[in-house]
Amino acid sequence: MEQNRIPDARAIDRIVATYSDMLLRIAVNRVQNLSEAEDIVQSVYVRLMTARPRFRNEEHERAWLIRTAINLCKDYHKSAVRRSNVPLDEEAAAAFPEETIEVLDAVHRLPEKDRYAVYLYYYEQMPAKEIARVLGEREGTVTSRLYRARKKLKTLLKGDDHGNGTIPDRV
Question: Phi, psi at residue 89, to the nearest 5°?
Fold first, then answer.
């Protein structure tokens, strides 16, 4: 997308085609319900079409979409509709490979900011620098979160029958 260009219909179609799967995985990871996650992704696109932000480049575009999805997930958790944790439902689990469900369950037990950093790093393959931009934090803070989260995950997974306490370099 050209610098400072407001997204037009073709650009929005490209954005939807490019980012829908990633945004859905982020939302499912956070809300643990496929239908709610789909609603959140739709809300991201509604905001895109109503706000019509100017993106400097594709990295800025991606960061805006991820940040918007994360904020909408937070709003969902604050709403009266959703006051308690619901286990990852079978439909939502289908969005991830079977071998990662156990690790995802452990990730859900992490504090919220650690959870986002781990998810974006391991599942969306984002570098710490980009995660820092998306989350509005310093890169050092993100790398510290990742380090602490890995230690917590190792402890959580050691307690599981199937876990061996190891966290993959990347999923």
Answer: -75, 165
pLDDT at 71 > cutoff 90: yes
What is the pTM for the complete model shown? Answer: 0.61
In the structure encoding, which two tokens stand for residue 153, read together?
């995950």
- Where b means 16+ CB within 10 Å and e means fewer, 54-80 reads ebeeeeebbbbbbebbbebbeebeeee
Domains of the chain in sequence order: 1-92 (1.10.1740.10), 96-171 (1.10.10.10)
CB 23 within 8 A of CB 44: yes
pLDDT tens-place string over residues 105-145: 788 888 888 888 888 888 888 899 999 988 889 999 999 99
